[in-house]
Amino acid sequence: MNAPEPIKTSHVMNTYGRLPITLARGEGVWLWDEQGRKYLDGLAGIAVNGLGHAHPKLVAALTDQIGKLIHTSNIYGVRGQEDLADAICARSGMEEVFFCSSGAEANENAIKLARFYGYKQGKDFIKTVVMENAWHGRTIATLAATDSPKARKGFEPMQDECFVRVPHNNLAAIIEVAETNPEINSVMLEVLQGEGGINLASVEYLQGLRKLCDERGWLLILDEVQCGVGRTGTWFGYQHAGIEPDAITLAKGLGSGVPIGALAVRGSAAKLIGPGNFGTTFGGNPLAMRAGTCTLQTLEEDGLLQHAVVIGDHIRAGFRAALEGVAGVTDIRGQGLMIGIELDRPCGVIVTRALEAGFLINVTRDKVVRLLPPLIMTTAEADLLVAGVAPIIKNFLLE
Ligand SMILES: *Cc1c(COP(=O)(O)O)cnc(C)c1O
């Protein structure tokens, strides 16, 4: 194998610590770089490409749509918004959807919704409870809701006075902070934290939280940007707990790579917003809407939710078997195709080694090897992924 070519980023702002490959094309779970080297995709563009790459149904739908309309404006009716909002509400129990273009933007609007809810209640200041290890985005408000010292550093002042942070999965902690923070009117969390290290909220916690929010008239806002759209085996992560949130945010997997974000609301969070309150130029454009509708339809037609459960369990079982008795593996966890392998030490170098061996994976929170494969991954491809990545983890820990 040739040495990887550094990417020419001279005029591209130096934001991401980029890996030394440039991908040129993909098909299914496979990607090829500009040098023609082949990679097995264990990351799906960070939970975006649920349908893998160049899925025939998506290619056909988008090709058709590009030939008709890409963008009009929200000052006109957009048929595709009606279709996708119906599809999201039918699967989530939500009543209204606002479309935007990213996860951060969806969460930004969720935060604005909580404020507007407070305003309508006659409150002049509200606070939202957020979690330790949360990730909600990089805009000023979502960064304040995010628990990442690395991402926040240098961008202060944060709007920290608008958020109260508590440990994830701990109802008593929320009840406690409520005593000294009467301004609280909402709770925002990921039911399965992604960037925070694949941390699952328990069913009892989520049910208790729903009850608490009902008792206090708080909005329960769930950030489903990473765990939503089928990835955990249900349409949305909270459906494992049988609860109904007041608002959810979606993005990553919804458009299969076409930029999209959505805030969906029900109950007391619905019918709040009117013309002039929310808006965005690109949000809900016909191309993004077609991508979203095609994604949901294809996930359903091809049985990919149930498939995500089977393949996710298969991959976790594979890693458990391959890493059994290896000192340094502290946990193998997750749900559906959100998979975390936690080690007892920082392990970022595993990403580069996997890349050199032809596997695209990720490490988050320094110590958690994270896999977010496309939902179309077959058992045979999952076996290749485990067979390729497990020895890299094992050798790293034996050094
Ligand atoms: C990625 C992510 C975001 C931010 O989405 P962007 O599209 O990058 O702005 C927000 N919340 C969660 C849970 C995410 O995983």
UniProtKB/TrEMBL annotation:
It is an enzyme of class 2 (transferase). InterPro entries: AcOrn/SuccOrn_fam, Aminotrans_3, Aminotrans_3_PPA_site, Class-III_PLP-dep_AT, PyrdxlP-dep_Trfase, PyrdxlP-dep_Trfase_major, PyrdxlP-dep_Trfase_small. Keywords: Amino-acid biosynthesis, Aminotransferase, Arginine biosynthesis, Cytoplasm, Pyridoxal phosphate, Transferase. The modification N6-(pyridoxal phosphate)lysine is found at K252. Signal peptide: none annotated. May also have succinyldiaminopimelate aminotransferase activity, thus carrying out the corresponding step in lysine biosynthesis. This is Acetylornithine aminotransferase. It comes from Derxia gummosa DSM 723. The gene is argD.
